Amino acid sequence: MTTYARIDAPSSLVLDRETPPEELAPGQVKVTITLCGICATDTHNYTSGGQIPPATFGHEWTGTIARAAADVTSVAVGQRVIACVGPACGTCAMCLAGHADHCDTAFAEANGVTPDSPAHGGFATSLVVSARRVMAVLDGLTDVQAAIVEPTAVTFHAVRRTRQPLGAVVVVQGAGPIGLLTAQHARHAGAGRLLVIEPNEERRAAATALGFTDVVAPGDTATTWIEDVTSGLGADVLYECTGAAALLQPSSEMVRRGGTLSLLGFPMTDSTVSYGDWQVRELTVIGSLAYTHDDFVGAMRSIADGSVQVDSLHTDTIGLDGLAAMMDELDSGRTSQAKVLLDPTR
């Protein structure tokens, strides 16, 4: 039997049980879940009563192949895997138009809306998914590191899309897990100077522990740093990682004329911005959501070679019975947690 978490009402979940199929369909694998990370998408899903597809409630998982259909050759029983999206399918409208980096199939997999998406996510003891949705864990990665590959791929994707110039003056707005991972990718991509802005003292300390020397609270200190370092021009690139709708325009105002505003945080409400200001200053605005198959390869390599450190982001491990309470804590805005992992065997 598989035990899994299901949202049944706003800020409420239950633990259900299901019997996995005796026979796997062609192309399917059954994964025994080792760990599954909790992210802001999960807390939004929890508080909204399940407005996001159920397959995404627990999408940062790693585990071991327990069974594989006879036609599956990409992974083998006993192999450690991570959740991912498949390669560009080559048959969807976007692929046929030459836009394989925006494959419709891979994007649907990332959002849990393909016809073969499971009825629940990785907050479970096991999961049956398409073999397209798993990738072998790179040798040398621990289970904890493997469980944090997915958000590392999200941020790898964003920095790659931003095409950050070598030596750029970079600002990262927000030092939650996404901000800390983005800052590390930006450093790895050759940022010349990098400022992390974060109101929470514990999160600022986490950024400092990762080797960032310019870490400040929002306000005059941040403004002065940007003015001094850029001679009043503004940052070359700003990564907005908070998802706070009210910060979109103030963030853009830290960017120089002709610079880039890169959006990672997902606002749950509409934002008010000055389009005229953005147009006059010829800002390049990059939206980023999810990832491609190769982003997972790059993310794992960046962890394996030490360019991106994820172990310090892991602050707690809980069991299925503690998931609801942890969701409430993470949604409260008064938590010291960074990346919490769920171990379904606890």
List the helices and strands and how they pair.
Layout: E1 2-9, E2 12-18, E3 28-37, H1 40-48, E4 60-68, E5 80-83, H2 93-96, H3 104-110, E6 126-130, E7 134-136, H4 143-147, H5 149-162, E8 169-173, H6 177-188, E9 193-197, H7 201-209, E10 215-216, H8 220-230, E11 235-240, H9 248-252, E12 255-263, H10 275-280, E13 284-287, H11 293-304, E14 314-318, H12 323-332, E15 339-342
Parallel strand pairs: 8-9, 8-11, 9-10, 11-12, 12-13, 14-15
Antiparallel strand pairs: 1-2, 3-4, 3-6, 3-15, 4-5, 5-7
Helix pairs in contact: 1-12, 5-6, 5-11
Integer count of domains: 2
CATH architecture heading of the largest domain: Alpha-Beta Complex
Q: Element order, helices and strands?
A: EEEHEEHHEEHHEHEHEHEHEHEHEHE
Corresponding CATH superfamily of the largest domain: Medium-chain alcohol dehydrogenases, catalytic domain
Tell me the strand percentage band: 15-25%
Q: Count the beta strands.
A: 15
Radius of gyration: 20 Å
CATH class descriptor name of the largest domain: Alpha Beta
Shape: globular
CATH topology of the largest domain: Quinone Oxidoreductase, Chain A, domain 1
**Biggest beta sheet attributes:** 7 strands, mixed
Query: What is the helical fraction, as a range of percent?
Result: 25-40%
Q: What structural class is derived from the secondary structure elements?
A: alpha/beta
Mean pLDDT: 97
Low-confidence region ranges: none
N/C terminus separation = 16 Å
Query: What's the tally of helices?
Result: 12
